[in-house]
């Protein structure tokens, strides 16, 4: 049974290499952002698999956190690409 | 009233002076001040019968008893003599200053406060029995002298003179403090009498010579001995009453007092005798040589003071020899201490009056330049008479007191050639030559001072003022001193019994039981002996030299005034040198300072490791390394290397993020979930902040080509890395105690009621740290908010982003 998890780990790692290639190469910025988002998801799966391999449940919080961070990061980057800034100011700024 | 309080009377009176000056306008403030030294003089004079019997008066005021530091007033013959000089001449000087300083134009409240402060300081110096209290008063004399020299503070020369005298005397004072502390360490007491009691033990102490030299530094700087005399001529910028009081009669004699007071401790050492006698004689010679060169009346008197102080100093040194000869009571060296004290009194009288005359001449003609003066004899007959008495006494002519002390001086110096200890023989005759030549020059400058001021042709066109005789009040104090000069010549033994013998008994306590044991009588005539012929020689050669003064005056121009230029050069060098030094190492670049810090770290830590043999590696307790760890470490190293060799900043930032995330992964592997959580979040936020900073970089430097390689930086970085690694390995190998964590593991459930050991430590066992880390975070947040919002330099509210 454990070999299944090992295999999955290797597969996810290989996928990550692919994502990293896209981050470095990716002709446009949206390409890179999508690749980064995918990398985040891949990290989540790696930690989940590692928790299974190490037989511990202490890292489940990290998975949640990574999910949030990855989402926020992607949204922030998207907004940056679309509007040019992340936090908008009020017009009657004080 | 206990005598120790008398010391502080002038200081307390000084508090009232500004009020008197402000409130009572139509009366000169000096009249109120005059009462204080006069009253003190009378009180001190009433102690004379006590000290004449060889007894002393001690009174104590507790100051810091736990450290053995107290104000102890110890009045024996020596301190009483000085106290009488201080208060007596103090009264005369205050009287003189009433007429000298105008009550409408001068800031008298300052003047008399400084003067009274000085009086307290000086009384404290001569009466203190405790070395530390003595030092306190000693520095107080330096400070009040500084204030008095700089009294006309709008003049450049006054400030220069004040600073110079301050620097030199405080330099000596600090060294003297060192000597005092050494004495305190050696004798376990600061009390002078107790130290005198344990002289033999002190002399065998290795610190003895060092203490001796340090104390002498203080005495020599204060008493203007060679080569520290240079401040005294520049101190002549002070008002003349100050010059008369401080720089001839009292303060410059503080060094002499110290030498005399500590003679019983130090006289056993040959270094003491050599230094005191040698430096004193050389100062005598040097000062007399330069006095005739001066063109300013007060400068002549200043160099003459230097020279006469050297004379007294050399006599004190010769008096110390009495501790080394057998049958001292019959030897001629006991004579030297007597002559020293005698001349000290004489010098105070005639020099005080001469300074007052110089002040009168300045006051009534408007100049002190001796080239413009002349022919004042018929215009100022009274001043001339007093000046004649003073100058003739200074030159050593009968029937004035200077004659007597000069004869005694020659006797003592002649005796030096018979003294054989400490390889004195041979040099003794050199001393005689020095002393004799100095006496000749003393004769020359005394006549030069007198006759070039009062004789010759009157030059009214060169004088700023119409010359006329001084008011009676100004002549009175000078006249009283002149009267003393003559009186002492005719009744020297009265003075000798009342003041000199008790003082000598204090300097040489081992030789005499009571002052009346000293069987010295002063006589004006003691037959046709060597001294007599030497005196005749002085008169003849001195007269000849004075007669031909103008002919050889040009020779003086060849003598450079190198000691003053040495002082100026030293000040210039220390200023520019210190400037250059700090400019050299304080470059203003953080990188330079970081290089200093890291180099020091490497040197200090590896040095300590090597010196203490602390470098040990122990592989016994190392645990096995898993494969994940190796992989993560490889990633970590790769990412770190990428930072160093990155072409663009963006790559560096991303690599830094990679480092952070791999550290988080390490935390996962080493089973620290809380740390991993925090590390992830913080790393994300800080990478975002780095990106923010990067985004706002100016266009030009945004894409800088990679960091340049510098060998020095590389070496230092390598060194720091190796150092830290060594320390980590060494400290891992030498764990002295087992960890405390077992306690936490056992009690986290029972004591704290928690399951997460990290969190329980953070908020329960050691919650205090957490509190302040929260505070740090709050401060950082407020700081950032403040930096962004608060723009005091730019008034208009401008948007940063747009």
TrEMBL record, chain A:
It is a multi-pass membrane protein. The keyword Chaperone does not apply. It comes from the Bacteria. GO terms for molecular function: sodium:proton antiporter activity. The chain crosses the membrane at residues 6-24, 33-52, 58-77. The keyword Manganese does not apply. It is found in: Cell membrane. GO terms for cellular component: plasma membrane. It holds the Pfam family MrpF_PhaF. Keywords: Antiport, Cell membrane, Ion transport, Membrane, Transmembrane, Transmembrane helix, Transport. Belongs to the CPA3 antiporters (TC 2.A.63) subunit F family. PANTHER family: NA(+)/H(+) ANTIPORTER SUBUNIT F1 (PTHR34702), NA(+)_H(+) ANTIPORTER SUBUNIT F (PTHR34702:SF1). This is Na(+)/H(+) antiporter subunit F1.
TrEMBL record, chain B:
Signal peptide: none annotated. Residues 128-428 form the NADH:quinone oxidoreductase/Mrp antiporter transmembrane domain. The keyword Iron does not apply. The keyword Transmembrane applies. It is found in: Cell membrane; Membrane. The chain crosses the membrane at residues 6-24, 31-51, 71-96, 108-126, 132-154, 166-187, 207-232, 244-260, 272-292, 299-323, 335-361, 373-395, 427-451, 472-491, 532-549, 593-611, 623-645, 652-670, 676-695, 715-733, 770-788. GO terms for cellular component: plasma membrane. Residues 634-699 form the MrpA C-terminal/MbhD domain. Its main location: membrane. Residues 710-789 form the MrpA C-terminal/MbhE domain. Keywords: Antiport, Cell membrane, Hydrogen ion transport, Ion transport, Membrane, Sodium, Sodium transport, Transmembrane, Transmembrane helix, Transport. It is a multi-pass membrane protein. InterPro entries: CPA3_Na-H_Antiporter_A, MrpA/MnhA1/PhaAB, MrpA_C/MbhD, MrpA_C/MbhE, ND/Mrp_TM, Nuo/plastoQ_OxRdtase_6_NuoJ, Proton_antipo_N. It holds the Pfam family MbhE. Residues 64-112 form the NADH-Ubiquinone oxidoreductase (complex I) chain 5 N-terminal domain. One of its GO terms (molecular function) is antiporter activity. GO terms for biological process: proton transmembrane transport; sodium ion transport. NCBIfam families: 2a6301s01, PRK12645.1. Belongs to the CPA3 antiporters (TC 2.A.63) subunit A family. This is Na+/H+ antiporter subunit A.
